Every structure is written in structure tokens, then in C-alpha cells.
Amino acid sequence: MDAKTLAIHAGYDKDSQLTMAVPLYQTTAFEFKSTEHGADLFALRQLGNIYTRLSNPTTDVLEKRFAQVEGGNAALATASGMSAIFYAIVNVCEPGDNIIAADKLYGGTYNQFVHTLKRFGIEVRFFDTFNVSSAEDLVDDKTKAIFFESITNPSIDVIDIESIVNIAKKHNIMSMVDNTVATPYLFRPFDWGIDISVHSTSKYVTGQGLAMGGIIVERNGLNDFLKSNPRYAHFNEPDMSYHGLVYTDLDFPAFCLRARLGLMRDLGAVPAPFNSWLLIQGLETLSLRIKEHSKSTLKIAQVLKTNANVKEIKYPLLEGDKNYDNAVKYLKDGASGLLSFDVGSFDKAKSVIDKLEIFSLVTNIGDTKSIVTHSASTTHQQLSNEDLLACGVTPGLIRLSVGLEDVDDLINDLQNALA
């Protein structure tokens, strides 16, 4: 079935009430039928619900549905996009290991990689987004993943994805993509051989800024990659915290299972059932919304390109953009509602933003309502000047998340602010 159909129907077998809408199971725990039933659940001899920190029927629908929409094998929903990224990394790394990451990243991801992972003994080595071949020079026997964003935030770049995947496959290393901005409808990560996709579902999936959430999706066939792979020995050795279970010996998707039984169990960044329910509603209309976001944003980019007060504009499907060829190659039906433009200085950026009337000054993206963000003073404020430039953030950079308002109204708002 097509992804649009899956987004509405996948993962939900109607319960005894035959409700058309997925029910909200707003509960912490679930009753066992007997002591034997409870023991069987904990020993994985029988599948079922134990405690919402491990699984919940509403969240289960979200996970199954999202995995199918993106073309993956299994998914694990988390409390936020940042927890999804953290779980994906520490699911493969231990102290002394390293990952390789593109240098154009969301500010929160950059901080997690540079500061938090360092305290866990995990090193992050950065390569030039526009020189992907340099990533191979960073690989050693302790490298566990290559991480990048399909559409970078806020620099709005599209990396040479095929070359990254080829490097990962050559060295038997897992490839991971943050597909938040592109969503499963604009970029299909598993069609390009990527192993793991992560999302902040707080963005385009919810679509109205209603719920925090994140999700990890693994590709079909990942168990074969993990099995007997010396880089990921812990997937092939007994987990003594779970009765000596060996994940790759089971007939379940090993990556998400280990993240659930180990990381989610022990660290607990679990989504609230109500948030999962809200995300299900958003997922049903995502295919329509992301196309409309993309259509309006391209039109705005074409107008801003002709404005004398705009020094540089970045939108991958804008002809002449340095990312245009990659965008045409990898993206389908648009390049999202994210757009960046530079007005030359911090003071000018401040002036433009303060004059906007429809765009709201918010540190979020993917909302039906249009948003403007000054990355250098908000999401990337903690970075040094050198790190800001590495992430593609200049003092005069303004990021737009174009919503679903009338596009001509948005253009008039921007032109008045830039005058």
C-alpha cells in the first residue's frame, strides 16, 4: 500500500468497541491475568503490555504506523527528538567508541554530541558536509555510526547521501539519518540503504505544535547486518540484565528491541500516551501538509531571491542553490517548509524579525502557523563563533518555517519587514 494509505490505517486492529479512531489508552500499568501470565510477559515468552514505560497500545499503533509509512521494519517512540537521537547513539556505543557526524547539524544535536556524549566517553568526529569523502579518513575500529541530517537545520543543505552510505557499507558501519525536516514523504531513507532513521515528531508529524515526541525507525534486514558484526558485539552476546537474552537470536527487530528493553526500561524517556495519540492524528494528514508547506516555501524563496535586502537565500529546490542537484536527486515532492536567508548583520536581522506580523518568533518548526527564528541568538546561542559558522549559522541568518497560511499574505509580511 501507498504511504498515504498506511498513515491512516496501518498498525491498528480495531478493539472490541470497533472504534474508527485509535483509542487513547491513558494508563500507567496493565493487569496480568495470572502470576504465570505476568512471568511469561517479563520473560518474553508471550508478548503483551506490562507498563507504559515499556509499551502502550496507543504508542504501539504510532510505532507500527510510522515504521510502515517510512518503509522500515520497526520503530520505537520516545519522549522527544533529542531522546531519540541519544538512544540511537548509545544503543550502539560504549565508552571509548566514536561516531562520525556531518558538521551541519541542529544546535541541540551539536551540543549533545560535543558535550553530553563526551561525558559518556563517546567521541564525535565531524566531517565537512560538502566534502563527504573526508568522513572516511575519520573511521577506525571503534567507529559505530555515521550520522547526518537529510535536510539540515538551520543551514538547509542536502548532503551527498549516497556517498555517505557507501562509506558506511564499505566499513560495515551503521548509517543514521535525522529525517525530521524532510519527513518520510520527501525523503525515503531506506530506499537509499540507510540503516536507522530518527525524527523529532514534535515538528511536522504533529503539525500544530501540540505534542513533544521522537521516534527511531530501523530498516528491514538490519538483524542480518548486526549478526556476527564485530563492531556490534553487544547485540550478539548475552544481555545479563535480561536473563542472558541475545538480541540477534530472536525473531524480532534487534535494534529497536534492545533500545526498548535496555534504554527505555532504564532511562525512561517514554512518550505520554496522549502525545502518541496526538501524533497519530498528525501523521494521518502529513502527506498533504508537507506538500503545501513545500509549495509555499519555494514560492517565497523565489520572491526573496529578488529582494535587494536579502544577501543570501537557502532553499534546496531553488534553482542556483548549491544543494539543487542533491535535492533533485534525493527529495520527492518538495524540500519542506524550512527556508533560511541572510540579511547581512545581527541588527538587520533583529529589525526584520521584529517587524513581522504573521510570522511568530518561536524556536520550533513544522507548525501550521508560520514561524521565524534567529538561530544565532536562540537555538545555536551556546556555540562559539567558529562552531556557529561550521553549522552554517551567521549573525544575519533568519530561519523561516513556512506554515499553511495564504502564501501571498506571507510574502507581503516579509516584503514589508524587509523594506
Notes on the protein architecture:
The protein starts with a helix and ends with a helix. The mean pLDDT is 94. Helices cover 36% and strands 13% of the residues. The chain is globular and about 75 Å long. It is built from 14 helices and 12 strands. α10 (273-304) crosses α14 (407-418). It has 2 domains: 3-274, 3-Layer(aba) Sandwich (Aspartate Aminotransferase, domain 2); 289-418, Alpha-Beta Complex (Aspartate Aminotransferase, domain 1). The chain has 419 residues and is of the alpha/beta class. α6 (161-170) links the parallel β4 and β5.
Q: In which range does the helix fraction lie?
A: 25-40%
Question: Which strands sit side by side, in order, in the main sheet?
Answer: 1-7-6-5-4-2-3
CATH architecture field of the largest domain: 3-Layer(aba) Sandwich
Strand content: 5-15%
What number of structural domains do the residues give? 2
**What fold name goes in the CATH topology slot of the largest domain?**
Aspartate Aminotransferase, domain 2
> Helices and strands: which structural class?
alpha/beta
Biggest β-sheet strands, sense, barrel? 7 strands, mixed
Distance between the termini: 49 Å
Radius of gyration: 22 Å
CATH class of the largest domain: Alpha Beta
Give the averaged pLDDT, no decimals.
94
SSE run: HHHEHEHEEHEHEEHHHEHEHEEHEH
The DSSP helix count reads 14
Q: What kind of oligomer do you see?
A: single chain
Number of strands: 12
Q: Low-confidence runs (pLDDT<50, min 5 residues)?
A: none
